[in-house]
Amino acid sequence: MKNTxxxxxxxxxxxxxxxxxxxxxxxxENRTLKLYPGPTGSVLFATLGILIxxxxxSQIKVRADQTINARTFPAILAWIMLVCSAFxxxxxxxxxxxxxxxxFIEMNLLNEVKAMIILLFLVIYALLMPLAxxxxxxxxxxxxxxxYFRVKEWKYYLLVTVLALxxxxxxxxxxxxxxx
Amino acid sequence: MNLFIEGFQQLFQISNFIAMNIGLxxxxxxxxxxxxTVILCIVLFLxxxxxxxxxESFMFLLGMYCAGSxxxxxxxxxxxxxxxxxxxxxxxxxxxxxxxxxxxxxLNMALMASTxxxxxxxxxxxxxxxxxxxxxxxxxxxxxFLVCAFGLTIIAGVSGKTLTxxxxxxxxxxxxxxxxxxxxxxxxxxxxxxxxxxxxxxLVICLIGLFALSEVLNRSKRSEKIGKVSLHKEDPQANRITxxxxxxxxxxxxxSSLIGVIIGIIPGTGASMASFVSYDRAKRMSKTPExxxxxxxxxxxxxxxxxxxxxGATLIPLLTLGIPGDAxxxxxxxxxxxxxxxxxxxxxxxxxxxxxxxxxxxIFVNLFxxxxxxxxxxxxxxxxxxxxxxxxxxxxIFCFAGAYSVxxxxxxxxxxxxxxxxxxxxxxxxFPVIPVLLGLVLGPITEENFRRALILSDGSWSIFASSPISxxxxxxxxxxxxxxxxxxxxxxxxDKQHVPT
Amino acid sequence: xxxVVMSMIVMLLLSSGLFANGQSEGPSAENWxxxxxxxxxxxxxxxxxxxxxxxxxxxxxxxxxxxxxxxxELGAGGNVALTNFLKNQPNSENLIFGAEGAFSIAPNIDxxxxxxxxxxxxxxxxxxxxxxxxxxxxASMGITDLESLKAYGKGKKVKVAVNGVASxxxxxxxxxxxxxxxxxxxxxxxxANLALDAAAKGETAFAISHQSQARGSVEAGVLNPVxxxxxxxxxxxIFKGVKGVGEYGYSGYFRNRxxxxxxxxxxxxxxxxxxxxxxxxxxxxxxxxxxxSLMIEVDPLNTQLINKHIDDVTLIVQSNR
Lengths: 180, 501, 321
What we know:
Oligomer: heterotrimer
Number of domains of chain B: 1
Structural class of chain B: mainly alpha
Number of helices of chain B: 19
CATH architecture of the largest domain in chain C: 3-Layer(aba) Sandwich
């Protein structure tokens, strides 16, 4: 009785869900973000280089008697990042002066949001693992991923559940790894 | 000669071959599954060897070691996720070839090349071990540093369009490798009072993040609705390796074997460096360098021969000098000692028969790897038929389980996630990710040997030019730098010529 | 509706609180062990401690009546596992290995701020084995004892290869060379085998390592043993006749020891149960033979002697850092 009752509602629900997602996707699909990878990267790595140089004195203690010590290598690397970033910036600068176009990429907002959603699932998985245990967290993650891919067949849901539990069993009981 | 025959007799026992084949199977599976690695495989199954004899346990471990070395290429080719760090170079050409519908060809080439490299090094081990070990003894700290410095020049070859971006990415990898305890003074670096950062980042964890998990994030790019769609289709016609192709890859395969052996005898460098150096060499010496990165068979052959040629070579310093070249071999050292065999110069005198049995065994390990591989590639190739909606979560679950198993630590899973985001961002900003991996691999040994050399010489830089080997290595480094700079200048000229048209 | 939800949440919280309370009491001492015993080796699989752990564990059912699981938990030279171990309650079935590296060396060098445990958090039960370090020299130099070392080292900086400069080996070198009045430069290698190789190649001329690690090179005549870092020499074929640092009248020596720890507050009854079981295991002929092949000594120190060991090594570390 119950089954026949529930089935149509479920289908209706999933239709609604589909329609909602398609609607959201449609809105996002045509939006793009312009990204200039050159200058962005240069600024990012120049900042990182400076940050490393600033942090070295507090983060690396050294003995006074050595000229080449634990700080030398990280400092050299920070300078390499700074010099290369500066080189890239100057190159970009010359292009701007010569009125050439800087290369840019158009990021599709939909793709970025999708990547964020996968990342969110991964984070949920990682956070859930110590709380709910490896097997349960794995099943939850696998089901979330199927929802993400908008899989309808219940067989797939069963399959990934079995696989997730199987991997957990394999690690815990066959390989004797103490999973959370 | 007597030892040889007796060794043969010792080896030819059914239990040795069973152990070998179980090892091979496990190694191949662990190598092929992203998140699981050879070292994890050896660590997890090591306790089984405690009840085995010397030859049996060694065959078991060598099976895992060799097959794991090959197995990494399987996932690199099929799903663009290297199962081991050194399969990253295989991925560069294996995945594009697979995408073109030639999955079986790519897998077979990787298997053939791995077997060739493995047997090459096994033969070197069997017949030239004393000579090679003598040569290895001539290399010391300054020579090790120069080899690493040469390895760093490879960054130019995997930088993609902009050299400076490649250098920055390499520097980032080298920097990340400095986090943790400084190897020379035991001072802590950038650990921010966090005990989990004390021993730095494990390479396996970084690999899982940089390649496996970031590839999962990239799944978002596929715009089609992915219910049942598998990764790519296969074309059975194009999947045979023709005799002409075998001829084409013969030369790079041979050179890569040599490179693999030479790098293999240097402690701490290992298969990743060998495969990248070989890839770079093969590309520079190829008649069709433009194919590299788009599915070149030469590229696959070069990297796979090199990383399997390392397997036999690392055993040379282990057996003759008792020096383990990498973490896997270090565990084998324990397996020898537990059986009362002390590695070192006297090992061949005291236990000659066992040694010959082991060295002969390595050849058979490679032969059985070929047989098992032939069979297994057919099964593995079916992976591409699995819907990615199912494959993706399974890969992630393996990655998380694998990352956790390395140190039984949740922290490592978080680290892997951070590295995944890092790789995603680098991709967006058009920085290549492979130099980061090269930096992580080479960082510790480069710095360590550099600083150790200067301590040994009381600060005098002349130590880097004090032996014929050092001078030869210096020449090679300057030559390759010259080639890189010249190449870039020519590229720029070409670009300028293109601008007016 | 809201009321129902709220009361359900409260109920849940209460019951989970009760559940947690029930768990935290831990097993009673009399019934210990109530399940399998887990012994965590905080160092690498395949190392000496790991091999001993796994070998000893096979005798677990016989002497403890329950299976003994030998596992590894790596990170920060064992410090991560020791930190995580603090989550255990007294009388837990989980036990862990410890050594002077974590309690005498780590708190006294750079990075000590990151440590979140101290020796007082644990209850040492029994020392499982001891390993004696040996100073070896490039055989071509003909240095075989401390006198010839002293003569060689006068007025120059003697380079000694060690496996890391915060290792037991490094502090032994500093202590000995300090007492000898010689100028020392430690050269850090990534592993004892590489350190020995460096000495054999003449890069450093000297190395300090465990006996078992130096064995191959000494047998082959590439390296000469100079002195054992112990009270007296040892009684085995390879290092026979080599004097101990103590015999020369110096005090800067200690053995590498590996002991089983329980969480502080564990009942003495439990501790003596474990100690007795391991004393019997160490007597097993198979264990004795195993120890011989690994060149380690049976040295079943009790709590007081382990405490003394930690204090002694701490003193040496503090005066040499």
